[in-house]
Amino acid sequence: MSGAGIAITGFAVATAIIADYFIKIASQKEASLLTWSFLIGASLYVLSAGGWLFAMKTMTLGQVGVLYSVVTILALTAMGVIWFEETLGWREGLGIFFALLSVLLMSRFL
């Protein structure tokens, strides 16, 4: 995994996480699709896709997919627990452990 690929994937993930925040806010309103939160979230997803495109130029699809997925899982879990007061059970904890293990298994450094 190249440093540039990791940085670009980080940008794509950060943008998608912010988009997910706005989509979650929109989902809690009546007429969710007509809210500013939904429009902002959808626009950020488009921006995230641009980052995805450039990340795929520097890493294999498997590497970028696993890295993107794991970082997204960790960030969304943290967001849910911190900002939306969601609970984290043992199954989620076990899932996070295996997600982190998948990054190690997909790494070309092993």
TrEMBL record:
Residues crossing the lipid bilayer are 35-54, 66-84, 90-109
Q: Known Gene3D superfamilies for this protein?
A: 1.10.3730.20
Q: At the top level of its lineage, which domain of life is listed?
A: Bacteria
Keyword check for Nucleotidyltransferase, yes or no. Answer: no
Keyword list, A-Z: Membrane, Transmembrane, Transmembrane helix
Q: Tell me what this protein is called.
A: Transporter
